Amino acid sequence: MANSAGPGAGATGMLACMSIPQHVTKAHATGNDFVVYLDREGRFEPTEEEVRFLADRHFGIGGDGLIRLAHPRDVSDLSAEQIADCEAHGAEWFMDYRNADGSLAEMCGNGTRAITLFAQREGLFEGDVFRLGTRAGVKTLTSLGKVAGLGEHVFRVDMGAWKRGKTDAYEVTIPGTPGAARGTFVDMGNPHVVAVIEDAFSTLPTVEALDLVTKPVVAPAIESDQNVEFVRIDDIDDDADDLGEATMRVNERGCGETLSCGTGLCATAVTLRAKTGVDHWLITVRGGTLRVDVSDTDVTLTGDATIVGDVTLTR
């Protein structure tokens, strides 16, 4: 599929001198969407301005972020230790992920699935297992194919270790929206605060009624900006192998509300486990349903990915 993305006003000059390739691809993983491309020779590291242009939904292609798939040695911000870690764990390729505002991101769980489907299409690995470098360490993805209830191109991602702070230690509010909820800090390689609402401790509206265009406020303030998840527990079935169901929405730093957030889903499951003792969760976001499995040491995320089409940029 070939499309043409023409520039908006004032963008013609930038297109002419872009440091990204002329051909890129649009992909998404449960509605978390990305502009992605392969940089085999390490020649196309994007600038912040280019990322903002391509992610713009009016003048560019549109996306929650941009993913450049490159060799670790060709990613300029990586340390020698990070490059050596990729080599030690057999990760030939690195997910150079940028938020829609051009800022670097440590990790994107949905992005790992989208870029792995892209790498699979490009013939960059054989078999069902792909080891991918990220700024939060090497992640292992397993292709499961079609899975009922989850999608056509499903991948299971070993998201690695998690760290959780004290349960309900933060107050979460949304400017202009009455009420508040209690939030729990979870580190998934990037920072999250998860607020369980529609319970006795929350006075915020329902999940569906929240205004997540407005950035939530977390108090006391965390040193770095964070993603904020709002979740409702829908069901816990004691007869279904320790399985719970929940609904989640998220405001991601650097891009606002997204239809899905992989690390946010993991942080949510970690928080729900702390509150309920349930290890396995089916979590519905605006972009679909995913499965998250939590143990004492790590988290796995299972969900779909889709290639939308290939795009030729007009120079």
Automatic annotation (TrEMBL):
<feature type="site" description="Could be important to modulate the pK values of the two catalytic cysteine residues">
    <location>
        <position position="192"/>
    </location>
</feature>
<feature type="active site" description="Proton acceptor">
    <location>
        <position position="261"/>
    </location>
</feature>
<feature type="binding site">
    <location>
        <begin position="252"/>
        <end position="253"/>
    </location>
    <ligand>
        <name>substrate</name>
    </ligand>
</feature>
<comment type="pathway">
    <text>Amino-acid biosynthesis; L-lysine biosynthesis via DAP pathway; DL-2,6-diaminopimelate from LL-2,6-diaminopimelate: step 1/1.</text>
</comment>
<comment type="function">
    <text>Catalyzes the stereoinversion of LL-2,6-diaminopimelate (L,L-DAP) to meso-diaminopimelate (meso-DAP), a precursor of L-lysine and an essential component of the bacterial peptidoglycan.</text>
</comment>
<keyword id="KW-0028">Amino-acid biosynthesis</keyword>
<keyword id="KW-0963">Cytoplasm</keyword>
<feature type="binding site">
    <location>
        <begin position="262"/>
        <end position="263"/>
    </location>
    <ligand>
        <name>substrate</name>
    </ligand>
</feature>
<keyword id="KW-0457">Lysine biosynthesis</keyword>
<feature type="binding site">
    <location>
        <position position="190"/>
    </location>
    <ligand>
        <name>substrate</name>
    </ligand>
</feature>
<keyword id="KW-0413">Isomerase</keyword>
<feature type="site" description="Could be important to modulate the pK values of the two catalytic cysteine residues">
    <location>
        <position position="252"/>
    </location>
</feature>
<feature type="active site">
    <location>
        <position position="108"/>
    </location>
</feature>
<protein>
    <recommendedName>
        <fullName>Diaminopimelate epimerase</fullName>
        <ecNumber>5.1.1.7</ecNumber>
    </recommendedName>
</protein>
<feature type="binding site">
    <location>
        <position position="99"/>
    </location>
    <ligand>
        <name>substrate</name>
    </ligand>
</feature>
<dbReference type="InterPro" id="IPR018510">
    <property type="entry name" value="DAP_epimerase_AS"/>
</dbReference>
<dbReference type="GO" id="GO:0009089">
    <property type="term" value="P:lysine biosynthetic process via diaminopimelate"/>
</dbReference>
<dbReference type="GO" id="GO:0005829">
    <property type="term" value="C:cytosol"/>
</dbReference>
<comment type="subunit">
    <text>Homodimer.</text>
</comment>
<feature type="binding site">
    <location>
        <position position="32"/>
    </location>
    <ligand>
        <name>substrate</name>
    </ligand>
</feature>
<feature type="active site" description="Proton donor">
    <location>
        <position position="108"/>
    </location>
</feature>
<dbReference type="GO" id="GO:0008837">
    <property type="term" value="F:diaminopimelate epimerase activity"/>
</dbReference>
<feature type="binding site">
    <location>
        <position position="227"/>
    </location>
    <ligand>
        <name>substrate</name>
    </ligand>
</feature>
<dbReference type="Pfam" id="PF01678">
    <property type="entry name" value="DAP_epimerase"/>
</dbReference>
<dbReference type="InterPro" id="IPR001653">
    <property type="entry name" value="DAP_epimerase_DapF"/>
</dbReference>
<feature type="binding site">
    <location>
        <begin position="109"/>
        <end position="110"/>
    </location>
    <ligand>
        <name>substrate</name>
    </ligand>
</feature>
<comment type="similarity">
    <text>Belongs to the diaminopimelate epimerase family.</text>
</comment>
